[in-house]
Structure formats: structure tokens, C-alpha cells
Amino acid sequence: MNGRHDEGPHEHDRGLSYDLPVLARRRMIRLMAGASLIPLVGCTTEEKTTASPSSSSTSSSSSASSADCAEIPEETAGPFPGDGSNGVNVLKESGVVRSDITKSFGDSAGGTAEGVPLTITLTVVDAASGCGTPKRGAAVYVWHCDRDGAYSLYSEGVTEENYLRGVQETDEKGQVTFTSIFPGCYSGRWPHVHFEVYGSLADATAATSITNTSQLAFPEDVCDAVYATDGYGDSVRNLSSLSLEDDGIFSDGHERQLATMTGSAGDGYTAALTVPV
């Protein structure tokens, strides 16, 4: 498992410096394997595609063929994981196992995260079997910022909240589904969702034995459509200075982490990603 540092809303310079060893190690692994380090060509801030209200993005397929199967890239969990690695641990709290993560639970302030509806569906598969075998009975913990770029438990104003965090056990298809909101874009980072994979629900709720830590990225056309709606004003400005190719996490290859999107900004989106472990 990687070191846990990420460039958050207020600490992105500190996080990136901590992330560089992670990125260097990943690049070295790719060199040793003979893989190309040239990232896929995607949209940039100079070449944006505006999504229509009823459009669906197919920037990335969420399925992996057995001939092109590799574990999900390992990434930093960032400074705001809430998994006990930096003092705050939401995983051991009653109520963290849930599919709807839009509201806080337990003794927290009881707030609700507002924004464009987002359904997150992750399909965990066995990389050793060529990505053809679902990992039933595994567990996934997801977390991300709200539309203002703030992380519950950590960011000023939401330290008493624990929304946009939750755990689910994978079903017979290896899937977990979370009901959430589309995250905002904060300074220094491309819009993303963090997740950790555990061997079992018991491991997840004990905050132990993480098998994989990674991040899901969103296509630019979808980000543009969402950020044109009310409440995402800061995200428009922040996204304009970013690209997937320049992001400190996704710049060395994002094709395995770019979600397949369906839906619209008016009705909400579904983000789907296959996660080989």
C-alpha cells in the first residue's frame, strides 16, 4: 500500500511533494515491463467538448478484456482518508456501511451534501484470472470532496460531518453501488473519487489489510456540464487551469481510472469503473 498523501483543497503543494515517490515508482514499474509511458490523448482545457443535457460520455470502457488485464493503478489515499491512518477513523463507526453517502450519520452534525446526483458503481474483479472473475465478498470504501471542494471530517466548516464516505460489500457480480453527488474541482487536482479495496467487509470495518488504494477520474465533458449548474462556481475556475495530462496523479496514465459516464447534469450521472485487484 502506498504512502497516504494527496494534494487537498488547502494542501495540494505538500501532498504533491509526498506523491512524487509514488509516481516515480509507478513509472519505473512500467519501464521494466516495457510499457509505454505516453498517456492517452484526451480533452484539454484548450479543447473542451460541451456535453448536451442528454449526452452520455464513453471516454473510457469500464470493462477489461482478459488480454488487457492489469491491477488498478495504485495511488495515494491523500491527507483526508478518514481510515485511521492519520488519526481520524470513520470506518469503525456504526453506520459507515451504507449505499447512500450523501448524508452524515451517527453523532455528526447531520448535514447533507448538495450537488448534481451521482451514482458510483465499481466492479471488483480478479486480475490474476484475466479480469473475468468477480471478487464476491470483498469490500470497498469510497470518499470524495463536496461541491465546494471540502472533505468531511477535515475541512473547515465540515469537521463535524462525515458525509460522502461509505463502505459496501461486493455482491455476486463483484459490484458496489453508492448514491452520492458529483464532487467539485478544487485547486490543483482533477475531479476524482478516492477508494480503497479490502478483502472482506470485516477487514474494512476494522480498518485493516487494505489490498488496493486508487482513484477514479471523470471525463472533462461531464465535468463541464456539471460545473455549469448552480453551486459549482469555483469549480469552473479551478478546472480551467487543469488537464488530466497535467494532473499530479493521473498524468502518467489514466486510461484504467477514467470512469464510463451515463446520464445528464439535469437528471444526474452514473460513473462506472472496473477495478482489477
UniProtKB/TrEMBL annotation:
**Keyword Oxidoreductase appears in the UniProt entry:** yes
Q: Which GO MF terms are attached to this record?
A: ferric iron binding; oxidoreductase activity, acting on single donors with incorporation of molecular oxygen, incorporation of two atoms of oxygen
Q: Which UniProt keywords apply?
A: Dioxygenase, Oxidoreductase
Q: Where is the composition biased (Low complexity)?
A: 50-67
Does the keyword Phosphoprotein feature in the UniProt annotation? no
User: Segment Disordered: which positions?
Assistant: 45-87
Residue ranges of domain Intradiol ring-cleavage dioxygenases in the record? 110-189
Q: Which Pfam families match?
A: Dioxygenase_C (PF00775)
**Cited PANTHER family:** INTRADIOL RING-CLEAVAGE DIOXYGENASES DOMAIN-CONTAINING PROTEIN-RELATED, PTHR34315
Q: What is this protein called?
A: Intradiol ring-cleavage dioxygenase
Q: What is the originating organism of this protein?
A: Streptomyces swartbergensis
